[in-house]
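From the shared-data thread, chain only:
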Amino acid sequence: MQADDKSAPDDEAATKYRAICADLQDTDLVWLDYCCIPQDKKNASQQQDAIESLPFYIGCSDEVIVLEYDEENMKEYREVSC
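Structure, as tokens:
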């Protein structure tokens, strides 16, 4: 994975992964879009179904955390809770 590849789910230092793990409790369940939604364009129908299921998962969640890419600091992500 290239560090400057914005299509990659994380950078070479696993910055997003480390940020997610820092907030997890033993009983938490995690949904990772990149892993849980088909990325292959050949499966466009399955990809769309997975995207359309997101409101269900969000509705069943106590908390949703989004790691947003921070354009000002290229290697940092900031947490946005919904």
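The chain has one domain: 15-81.
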